[in-house]
Amino acid sequence: MALVAVTDHAVERYGQRVRGALDPRTEIAARVGRALAAGRVEEGERGARLVRDVQRPSLIYVCMEDRPRGELIVVTLWEEGEDAAVPRKWTRWRM
After folding, report:
1. CA distance 54 to 35
2. Cα dist. 36→31, 40, 51, 77, 80 in Å?
3. I want to staple 50 with a disulfide (CB 3.0 to 4.6 A). Which of 4, 29, 44, 64 is the partner?
4. How many structural domains comprise the chain?
């Protein structure tokens, strides 16, 4: 499994969507790790990897690989669907 790092921006976005996380940075890293192990990753634009949460499939983590450090960095996330806590149009991340 890859080492997963999480930006402050991703932590903020996660807090808008998933309430009650005691340590959101650790929780995000664990969720991304489980999703990677389950093969729930696809290629995004400009080398990004889109990782879909196992427990909550509408939640998508946008990750960039830091090859020299061997890390996958979660830079942001969004939620798909009509029932999204914060619709993607308000948090659209451009690469």
Report:
1. 5
2. 9, 6, 7, 15, 19
3. 44
4. 1
